[in-house]
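User: I'm writing a tutorial on reading structure tokens. Could you give me a worked example: one chain, its sequence, then its tokens, then a sentence or two explaining what the tokens reveal?
Assistant: Sure. Here is the example chain.
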Amino acid sequence: MKSSLRLTTLSKVLILLLIIGLIGGGIFAGVSKGFIKTNKDKSTDNTTIASNDKTTSSEIVSVEDINEDGNVINTTKSSSDTINLSLDEWIGWKSMIDANGGLSTQPGSIYDQLGIKVNISIINDATQSSNALISGDLDAAGYTINRIAFLQNKFKTGNTEVVVPFVTNFSNGGDGIIAKSTINTTKDLVNAKIGVPQFSEAHTLVLWFVNNSSDLTDEEKQNIIDNLVFFATPEESAKAFFAGDVDVAATWEPYLTQAQNMTDAHIFFSTKSSTSLVMDCIAFNKEFAEANSEVVTKFIKGALMASDMYDTDLETIKKVMPMFSTSSDEDIKDNCAGARLTTYADNISLLGEGGTARSMYIDMCDIWNSIGEIADASTVNSIFTTQYVESLAEEFSATEIS
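And here are its predicted structure tokens:
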């Protein structure tokens, strides 16, 4: 029986050739598939790739897809030394982008040298970014303190605790209210059509401005508040203003400057006259921050280190934030002036007990409550902390003036 199954020499040769052919074909197919996938991943069609002038295609570390909402989403997966962060298109976040070298941590960047990776997604919709923070797709997100006060109840409902260990900048004229040239006083706001991005810092800016106006009666204040025209974003409210659909709009740069340069419009009010009204900060998932305290501390350190690049590196932000893609260097510098970066000393003062960040949070909770929204000012002590920035005491001066 065995002898009848024994292979002849020719049969062995034929089978060997067949096996080599199958293996070779498999290898070729695998190489071809890998080649196609690699080129697809590096394709720039309908994507934004985080890079800088020194980065070649072989050095790209991740790809950011533009989703159906127009947001730039970084798809790199998280690891123990990685922070997945969302930011909107605001110049005040620039120090973190500069420290990163783009949306993904580039070789030789400040964050790379510190040994951490930061995947930045550009998400202009706070509803989307807060949903992602609750779901765990994000570890942190950039918001104003005004917005944090509004979102806190949503985070609580979503069983997600957040902590704010870092205030990044003061709005120094970067947020404000633009109006037709015929509107010059608070009395002129009565019966005017005022465009406002609902539940945003710009929304609170209007409410604060109106409620603190001594020129208006309580009835007039309520009239203004009841007749606000709501939009989803500051960009939409500004576009409605420029299209003539509203008489006044709460928005931010670069739309304030655009109105300033028009003959029939002007800046009615801006944060240049009150820089503490709008402060930007990074809110971390508290569980993530506690489990990765060293990573969070390095993240803050890198942002502070990058402050020298704020008005010198003008190219990186053009490449990663669509709003600034066609801006001139002078435009970028003007925008930088509208958002003053904080220092180490600022953060110790702002975040500590009795600090302005905490008091502003309480004030914003009161404003949200005044229009029927749920905002719990008692959460102030659990949200703001100096724990992480204090770890940098030996590297930064506590007497440094911003």
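What the tokens reveal: The longest strand covers residues 162-171. DSSP finds 18 helices and 14 strands in the chain.
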